[in-house]
Amino acid sequence: MRLVHRHDGHERVLASDVDVADSFLTKARGLMFRRSIPDDYALAFRFDGPGTRSLHMAFVPFAIDAVWTVEGEVTKVKRLPAWRGLGWATADEIYELPAGAADGVEPGHEVALVD
């Protein structure tokens, strides 16, 4: 599975190694207690419908880019610093990527998981 960014007829792979946090426990744990993540990695969080979704960086010792989407359309992109980062936005999916991986992704663009 890959995470793809589409905008103005262009397509770019943001991550070629994607894990889906699909249980309560994996969603609650997120990236906590990991020392690092590979450059081509993303963690995807899927929810039943749009709602205000938050992320925190407690026990995450590296910065990440977070992308919130509703039906594939980006609603927010934010760089979250290690340990103290916090962010929230409306989303039915959230993607956590290495810091810098979401450069160029902006609200209104499309981000999707592709098999």
Automatic annotation (TrEMBL):
For this protein, the record's PANTHER family field holds: UPF0127 PROTEIN MJ1496
Q: Which domain of life is it from?
A: Archaea
Q: What is this protein called?
A: DUF192 domain-containing protein
User: What high-level taxonomic lineage is stated for the organism?
Assistant: Archaea, Methanobacteriati, Methanobacteriota, Stenosarchaea group, Halobacteria
